[in-house]
Design goal:
By secondary structure, the protein is mainly β. About 5% of the residues lie in helices and about 45% in strands. Strands 40, 41, 43, 44, 45, 48, 49, 53 and 54 form a 9-stranded antiparallel sheet that branches. The chain is elongated, with a radius of gyration of 57 Å.
Length: about 675
């Protein structure tokens, strides 16, 4: 008996020595020793090679029904073993082999463990992770000989999914099947099973196959357009299988029901060759051959370029392309939900549409409001839907603006975007000095919609302000609101007085006047170019307009408006002769007209990206016939002063005389 260390096995476990004649010499036999080994079946065989201790694995303990060939207690490393099961069952792997892997190193020697590998369907070897068992199987179904099964086997495991296919132009009743073993009867306490096959439906469910599965003539899915929806939705359809067509909302197919018919196209080598032909059901219920692609046709078309949207209306022109499908159409306008303070009023815009074309107009609408325009059929089928916002208009005028006296800043309540998206504010601030009525400064500011406060310029005692504010949308500036403030009384409006400076040496005959001009300079600013503007008016509003306006070229044939008389680089006070007729680039110092009232404005302009500042000093005078050179205002003022002196002297004289009269009687009494 031969044995080996644990994990190894000799080539033979039992051997015996036999002496056999090697040769005969001079009539005497010469013997040699040979060894025989005992086979597992009990017979003896001559040992031809070296007997060694070979690494082995023990028989795997996977289940009593599993049959191994060869049937041994131990197997050599890499020895291929075949597995089988009783009828109606199949092992997870049909071929296995043992591999010894190093598990660890102990005292410098490797310790091995047994690992079994199984051959997969592709022929490769994979590690077996769990017990190999005898799994219930079914025999290959005997259906149509043209059916192709994948995987192509004689037996299939229970619940193993099998794919079915057919030659080109045909399709199986089911494309996926699986075998299920169900109890047919019970005999002597033992279940008797039978094989049944289930088929997978297009929706994903499984159903019992009750009849023969065959390759049925089919047609491929028609390639007519991506928007066309087919029901059932498949890649292939059986011959004469009725298919329903539909389209996205607002569209309709040329045919709603179709079916495929296979026609003989030609005969090749005695066999017919078929082609697919699709038929469609017409309005009368009959089937007609489809000659061209079936397409999704827009039932109702809104004529391009006719959509008109204004701030108060929406209008569109429509055309029906399928008259049979356009019966009892209804058009509606609905305001979309909105939130305060821009709540949209409910609009009852409904109209029945008749004929094959027409125009639909929504009733008067609100500006800058979202509306839904819908054209639909009685059963709720929407043929046309459009979400549109009416155009914006200029905003309402601001209502809330106040002065914060502690900071000298204007504050206001932001305008809501009800008429249009508020993109900013136009703020005009006109400042006057109570000490110098001829001084006028106007700031025109363009502020962001997020700004709700702005400081007043040079806020302090002795200033009065006129503020106009307008909201801005893409449609333009809205109505302006006007507020007036005084720095010493922020709550009481105060009219702004205009008292321009006087002018001396007016010459009606020459049409000239002499102005004493002083340079306008702001703190920390260098002297800049001054403009002299002349306006034929004494009106305060006209003076303000001339200060901030754009003067026009002088036109002698028309009543002169505001015009540029001179451009000056003032650094010191100077006398300027207005009306001497000089000309320059963009200005004309035209002669003054007899009988006209004039206001001359010395203006300094400062412009930046967001603000325009106009600083003006006004001079007021009239050109009157017979007026001596000099200032008529000075004459009047002189007369007034003389008159005041005369009245004051008369009052003093009267007071002195009155006291003397009172003192005379008292003296007479003393004398008596």
């Amino acid at each position: 008996m031969l044995s080996c260390p644990k994990g190894f096995q000799p080539s033979f476990t039992r051997v015996k020595c036999v002496r056999e004649v090697q040769s005969t010499s001079f009539g005497t036999h010469v013997y040699r020793e040979v060894w025989d080994g005992k086979l597992s079946g009990g017979g003896w065989v001559r040992i031809q090679s070296y007997v060694a201790c070979v690494a082995t694995c023990r028989r795997p303990q996977w289940g009593s029904r599993l049959q191994l060939a060869p049937d041994q207690d131990n197997y050599k490393e890499n020895e291929e073993v075949m597995l089988s099961c009783p009828e109606g069952f199949q092992p997870s792997f049909t071929h296995i082999k043992c591999v010894r892997e190093v598990q660890s190193i102990s005292y410098g020697k490797p310790e091995y463990r047994e690992v079994w590998h199984g051959r997969d369907s592709g022929g490769g070897w994979v590690r077996i992770r769990s017990n190999v068992a005898c799994v219930a199987t079914c025999r290959r179904p005997q259906w149509d000989w043209r059916l192709w099964l994948a995987p192509d086997q004689d037996n299939y495991k229970e619940n193993e999914e099998v794919m079915l296919s057919c030659p080109k132009g045909f399709q199986p009743s089911f494309t996926r099947v699986k075998c299920v073993r169900e109890v047919q009867s019970t005999s002597f306490g033992t279940h008797v099973y039978r094989e049944v096959w289930d088929g997978k439906l297009s929706g994903g469910g499984w159903v019992r196959i009750q009849s023969y599965v065959a390759c049925v003539a089919t047609c491929r899915r028609p390639q007519w357009g991506s928007r066309l929806q087919l029901a059932p939705d498949q890649d292939n359809y059986k011959e004469n299988e009725e298919v329903m067509l539909s389209c996205p909302e607002g569209f309709q197919p040329s045919f709603t029901h179709i079916k495929c018919v296979r026609e003989v196209q030609s005969i090749s080598y005695g066999k017919p060759e078929y082609r697919e032909v699709w038929h469609g059901r017409d309005s009368g219920g009959g089937w007609v051959r489809i000659r061209s692609n079936v397409a999704c046709v827009e039932v109702l078309q809104v004529v391009p370029g006719t959509l008109e949207v204004s701030s108060t209306s929406i209008k569109l022109n429509w055309t029906c392309r399928l008259p049979d499908a356009c019966q009892n159409m209804q058009a509606t306008c609905r305001a979309m939900p909105s939130s305060p303070p821009c709540e949209a009023e409910e609009v009852k815009g409904e109209e029945m549409l008749h004929g094959q074309e027409g125009t639909f107009t929504c009733p008067p609408l609100q500006p800058f409001t979202d509306y839904s325009v819908t054209i639909s059929l009685p059963l709720g089928t929407i043929l046309f839907s459009w979400l549109v916002r009416t155009e914006g208009t200029v905003p309402d005028k601001p209502e809330e603006l106040w002065l914060d006296p502690s900071t000298g800043s204007l504050r206001w309540k932001a305008l809501p975007s009800c008429q249009g998206e508020i993109i900013g504010y136009q703020l005009n601030i006109t400042t006057r000095s109570t000490q110098d009525g001829a001084f006028l400064e106007t700031e025109r500011l363009r502020l962001s919609s997020s700004v709700t406060e702005h400081p007043l310029p040079e806020y302090g005692p002795g200033s009065s302000y006129a503020v106009t504010m307008q909201g801005l949308t893409a449609a333009g500036a809205g109505a302006a609101s006007l507020w007036e403030f005084q720095s010493n009384s922020s709550h009481t409006p105060h009219p702004l007085d205009i008292s321009c400076r006087s002018v001396r040496d007016i010459s009606p005959s020459q049409g000239t006047a002499v102005l004493l001009l002083h340079p306008i300079a702001h703190p920390n600013e260098a002297a800049r170019e001054h403009q002299l503007i002349v306006a034929a008016t004494h009106n305060g509003t006209g003076v303000e307009g001339a200060c901030v306006g754009e003067p026009q070229p002088f036109n002698a044939s028309q009543q002169p408006g505001a015009y540029m008389a001179a451009v000056l680089n003032l650094t010191t006070s100077t006398d300027f002769v207005l009306g001497d007729g000089t000309r320059g680039q963009g200005y004309h110092n035209a002669a003054l007209r007899l009988g006209s009232d004039y206001t001359a404005l010395l203006r300094l302009v400062h412009r930046s990206q967001q603000v325009e500042k106009f600083t003006c000093v006004c001079y007021s005078f009239s050109v009157v016939a017979g007026q001596p050179p000099g200032s008529w205002r000075g004459t009047v003022i002189g007369v007034v002063v003389l008159l005041a002196i005369f009245l004051l002297s008369a009052g003093i004289l009267w007071l002195v005389l009155s006291r003397k009269r009172k003192s005379l009687p008292s003296k007479a009494k003393e004398d008596n």
